[in-house]
Amino acid sequence: MSEVLKIGKYEFNSRLIVGSGKYIDFQTTKDATLASGSELITVAIRRVNITNPNEENLLDYFKDTNIKLLPNSAGCFTANEAITTFRLMKEATGIDLIKLEVIGDAKKTLYPDVIDTIKACETLKKEGFTIMAYTNDDPIIAKRLEDAGADAIMPLASPIGSGLGIQNRYNIAFIKDSVKVPVIVDAGVGCPSDSSIAMELGADGVLTNTAIAQAKNPILMAQAMKYAVMAGRMGYKAGRIPKKPYATASSPIDGLIQF
Questions:
Q1: Is-contact 204 184, C-beta < 8 A?
Q2: What is the pTM of this model?
Q3: Which of 22, 30, 68, 99 is an active site residue?
Q4: What is the pLDDT at residue 247?
Q5: Is 176 a catalytic residue?
């Protein structure tokens, strides 16, 4: 089932996006990413080297692939920090597709500061960036981000790295109804079924990092996530049956032979 995911001027065949953090080394990062079928991998540019050629560089491991790097502003706590970080990154690498995240609570939830995220989005959009914006699961904020120029909305399923899965399925569906840009469920995915549920709700894609990187077998988990996203998307497109409170016979009783 080939169906292109469009984010701004970019197109992807895979609807799974993976992260680069928490792996034991860059080689495992590459192997798991390839196994996932993803064409996009997030990189925390304040924590992982992609600009200094004199040190081990994640870019070197992906030179022979079709996988694009998606720089993110993890570790930024204000709009100005995120804006400055991306300006420097773009000057060094030329990359203009970004994942914007401005964290408001660094101690427990890693929830975003949505006010500063919107401010940063408005500025970066004017400077020509293609923006994928990490946010909470609020349809009102999702619409505000779209209006600010976001090319994709990335609502959290649950706190980053928690593995709790989608805690509010209704809000994910509400966000999908509220915006016209792609909705990528981000943060909190713990297992393949979480990814499948997100896609069955109508999400355009899923981003997961910890669930793969910290699995006992990251390569196998990456493959499982790949097929879960595909299955969930196919299920959504096929259209599920309505839920009913009582049983419905699989075979009709009309014309049943009488004894």
A1: yes
A2: 0.88
A3: 99
A4: 85
A5: no
